């Protein structure tokens, strides 16, 4: 049970409400004042953390870390086991038990009840559904080609009201407004909810805006601001955006095409920044802004040609781990730009401390450290990340593409990374390893592991002290043990198997 302490002394001031906005697939390297003026204004008024790192490079395990304050190998949610263990305490549960109204708006189909993320929410809305219903047609949205989408539709159509399900598929696949993946509708709904609330109950609001995620399809007026010289909107939006097919060499992209894709990606960030501004205005209109801790982060980053990748799978480069993180409100006003190493799993400790909530069950399980200016938690000397199992699996790639490149076959492994202010070391359970000197090689282009064996040994020891030895946690073994330990919601496992997720 959570306890609301209600502390409000000058050195440890609390806030009334907490809003957490996740900009899905927002990487830190692409955020600047020209692109995202709203986020820049929030950072200037509040506190920006320049060295924030996700615990995993994709949505499901990263959100699980945000919700539980634990690493992927602790919460067990990854490509080999796509469900958040019901025994784990979550951030929304802590707020709910402390007397907060808890509302979620998810525009990413992984962050739903089906995958274990609804616990603690009074209402968790699905942005891809035109009609809100318990039956979730999100697997259709996740389908990577027509065959997968048709399979998901056939499998789920009669789960609940088939007419409602058909209407939701029609909306998500054909009728959703061009240039928007749910942020505009989500913001409209939040504004209506804020204006119609009764009573003085504090609230916790979670929003996932998925616009920066593939496919990049920003409104034309945004795209034309960021495309390279001579590139038309039609040329850019005609480029095939299929990261897994690109990985498997089913098609190729030129430097010019990647430049256009980066323009579209930047336009998506600019568009979602506009939605952030609308969300702030809704809070102001409801007279809640000054009493609210407003937090914005990415859940992971993105490769758009860097290191030979497109998307955010199969690796642990900073391009997919370094994300923006901005706090505005309460004790974070005027905090400036901080350069200490922090992790997204530090959010639970930070949000609860700032809201004056103590939740022993959540505190007992987490690896979270509070970023509150008055916190007694130690600063991090290093941050860690894990890629427990490939997603999609290599078997699924082979089923779709037939023979796949040796480079891709090698991705069937578990990866772990440790990063200090000076060094970055990545190790796989297949013996793969890379070492980078962050000071001289911030883009991680040169592997220096052969030249610096002593530093490799020191960082490998640091990894093993933080986690179990990697050799004993092979990705396939860990996924299998997790599946044995945790029971999915009835029918979920069969549906995921139909789509090749298991």
Give a brief outline of the structure.
Helices cover 37% and strands 16% of the residues. With 502 residues, the chain is of the alpha/beta class.
What does the model show?
This protein has 20 helices and 17 strands. With 502 residues, the protein is of the alpha/beta class. Strands 2, 3, 4, 5, 6, 7, 10, 11 and 12 form a nine-stranded mixed β-sheet that branches. A four-stranded antiparallel β-sheet has the order 14-15-16-17, with helices on one face. A two-stranded antiparallel sheet has the order 1-13. Helix 8 (183-196) runs parallel beside helix 12 (255-285) and helix 9 (220-226) crosses helix 12. The longest helix has 31 residues, at 255-285.
Structural class: alpha/beta
Task: Let me know the largest β-sheet.
Answer: 9 strands, mixed
CA-to-CA gap between the ends? 35 Å
- Beta-strand portion reads 15-25%
The CATH homologous superfamily of the largest domain:
Alkaline Phosphatase, subunit A
Taking Cα atoms only, what radius of gyration do you get, to the nearest Å? 22 Å
CATH class of the largest domain: Alpha Beta
The coarse overall form would be: globular
Question: Mind telling me which CATH architecture of the largest domain this is?
Answer: 3-Layer(aba) Sandwich
What are the low-pLDDT stretches, counting only 5+ consecutive residues below 50?
Answer: 6-11, 472-502
Helix content: 25-40%
Tally the structural domains.
Answer: 2
How many individual helices?
20
According to DSSP, the number of beta strands is 17
